[in-house]
Every structure is written in structure tokens, then in C-alpha cells.
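batch_manifest entry 22 of 60
target: PLP-dependent aminotransferase family protein
source organism: Variovorax rhizosphaerae
requested by: lab member K.T.
priority: normal
notes from requester: please return C-alpha cells only, no post-processing; we will run our own comparison against the previous entry in this batch. if the run fails, retry once and flag.
--- input ---
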Amino acid sequence: MDSAPPLKRYEALAADIEASIRSGTLRVGDRIPSVRRTGESRGVSASTVFQAYYLLEARGLIRARDRSGYYVAEGGSRAAPPEAELSSQPDGESVALDVSEHVFSILEASMTREVVPFGSAFPSPLLFPLPRLGQILASSAKKLDPWSTVDDLTPGSVALRRQIALRYLANGVNVQADDIVITNGALEALNLCLGAVTRPGDSVIVESPTFYAALQALERMDLRAIEVPTHPREGIELDALEQAVVRHKPSACWLMTTFQNPLGSLMPAAKKKALVELLTHHDVPLIEDDVYAELYFGDRQPVPAKAFDTDGLVLHCSSFSKSLAPGYRIGWAAPGRFTRDVARRKLTTTLNTSVPAQLALATYLERGGFDKHLRKLRQTLATQQATFAQAVGHHFPEGTRATRPLGGYFMWVELPTTVDALELHRRALTLGISIAPGPVFSATGGFGHHLRLNYGHVWDARAERALATLGRLAGECAKRG
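--- output ---
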């Protein structure tokens, strides 16, 4: 296995402050040194100090007070589990897939409101401004120009595509409205893009672990998967990726470079640039699944790999389902040189996406409500992650490790090797608790003692009892193993 990469400056600073909190040198209620003082004493910029403080705040260790600075938070000394440090080790072979039935059998069993949704793929719908969106939707429908149902048939609403293009621009990415195809959620965008760059029998590179819907899409299109080692913090290993490209000559890569599902990993910008350069050199298209990018906990949104695309080889896909409007099923693709092919595939499959829903989202974005909503959503998710991690550290068996993503709402948990995640899933479900066991994120059924947990739902007494129960069950499984 690869050794852990060296800490960045802000991570090293955060680690030192965290150690002071854990040891009791800094106690609950103590004021953290100011940004200016810390920057001067450590010889780093204010930006580096802010990044460290944002990271500590996301971990629940410190809290900001208006016009007063940062203080050690209540419960900050309660230990979260250590982070996962090592990359995965798939065998690197190109494999045919037979995963869908297994995935369906596990996920369908937990799709009910009565189950505590630690295994859910979605955050709580209560976190979104659905009443306000409903008002705008009703108003937009009344004012709907009948010709708009024809004029914007396949590429989608001009108004919405313009708003999406403006958000790309604000993040430093050159994507024009005409480069965008509106779809029925990100999953349709990803499937359309996959179909545009592959043919049955081709191989596609994926991360290890990877999003199970990617594996299902490959299986449905009769494609083969090549799993490549992936680091829990910084994403796919580029040396291993290049070896796989040279050996297998894949038709495409399907990767999540920002807050990957299930790891939560975030590929640094320099690594994203190197990724695009590598794939461009070998003329391999990158399908970039980027649905969590708006859910960052730091001071700025991570740029996508698309930002470094100069040859139109990055097919960027996203949606509003995870950040604004679950259930509206509005996503999009910015497919670069493949835009015309993706638009044609959309035309010959689902033809169009709900026009009233597109107009409602365009209006909401035009009125400037999205960023205000996102600020609140990010803070909520960061706080819930910190609380959740501390509870995992308290209730789960010794030897447990967990990722601490800088965004999104998933935590990847590595249990002692004697725990069978599928057995844990079955036992938890009988008690009304859902989890996503590790094997569903693998083309070969790996990650047998891992699981993905969703911290994007309300943390209350019911959730804490459920997590305590899950930790107890994991401990029992570990002892029996």
C-alpha cells in the first residue's frame, strides 16, 4: 500500500490545534489564538490559518462567535475515530459486471421512511427550500409560454442553461450556455455521456470503491470495469491510473474528483490538472460525476477537472438534486466535444426534461436565493458530520477508522477485519436501521468490512440511539469473527 501523503500546511496547523484540544491544553470555552497572531507565529498566510480553522470547525472541535473569534466547542474533546489513510488495492483487471440484482436487493429494503436512513443516498429533504420552490413553480407554470415546450425541446431552457453557465463562470470554468444539455437528473446525464464515448464490450476505468450506480450503468451497457487504487482523501492514484490506461486502453474514465461517493475524497486542484493532462495525452474521455461540488465546507468551491480541459475531453455532469431540489430531477451535462452526440441521444430517448421545473429553478437562481440557501446547508452538514464522527468514535468498536470529508454528506467507515458488512446490514435492518455495506461499491464484491454512512439527516435522539445500536452490533460481529 502507498504511504500517506504529507500534510498540507493548513492540515498540519489543524492537527497541532486538535492535539492541544485532545490533550486538554485547550479546554472547552477557551479562545483559539486570532488568525493574525497564529499566522505570525507559524509563518503562514491568513488564508492558511482560515483553512485550518474551517477544518477544525467542520470537525466540531471549534466554533466561531460573531466578532469574537474561535473557541473550543462543547464536546470538542470527544474523540472521533482515526481517519482512513491508505489507498485501496484492487487487482487492476478488466471485469464483466453482475452487480445490479445484489445492489437492488440491498437498497430497496431500506427505502422506507420508518428506517433510520444511514444507508440513504440522499440528504434529508427537510434541508431544502421546497416550499419556496413550490411557490415559484406554481407561478412559473401560470406564466408558461406555450412555445417554450417546443423551443427548448432537447438542450433545455435557455434561461436555466444561462444560469448554470454563470455558475461555471463564477468558479473559473469556461462553459457556455450552448455547451450544456439539461437532463432528467445527473444520472441521465452520466448515462448519456457514457453511451456517447463507449460501445458494448469496451472497458471503463472507475475508482475503488466507486458509486454503485456507475457499476450498474456499465453492466446495463455491456461494458467492463477496471478498478484503480483510490486514496480516501485525495482520490484516484494517478500512477496506477496511467498504468491501467496503457495496459487496457479503456474507452473512458468515470470518476468523481470532488467529494467522491462513497469515500468523500477531494482531489486537489493540481492533481485534477495532472489527471486531465494524463488523459488528454492518451486521448481518453473523462466522465466527471460532480453532484456534490456545492456542498463544500471551506471558504471556496473546489474547481472541477473540467476547469483544466482544453481539448473537450471532459464530460462534466451535475444536478440540483443534492444541493437544492431533490425530486425535481433537473441535471445537466457539459460534454465538451461530445455535446452534439449527447444532445442527439437525449432527443432519441427521453426527448425533454420538465419545462415548469426548469423554469422554476431558473427563476430561483435569477433571484439570488441559491447561495444563501447553500451557506446554511453547508454549515448544517459540517456540524452534523462533526457530531456524527464523535458518535462513531464513541460507540463503534476499537480499530474503527472513518473518513472526514471536506464536503458532502457521506462517511466511509472501515471496521475491524472480522466484521462482515453484509451481515451487519441484515442485522441492522431488522432493527429499523439502514446502512450501505461496502461490497455494493465494488465490481468484485470487495470492502467486506466497510460501510458508507449518511450524516445528511437530522441528528436527534432517534439517530443517536440508532448509531449506538449500530456500533453495538458491529462490536458483536467483531467479537464473533
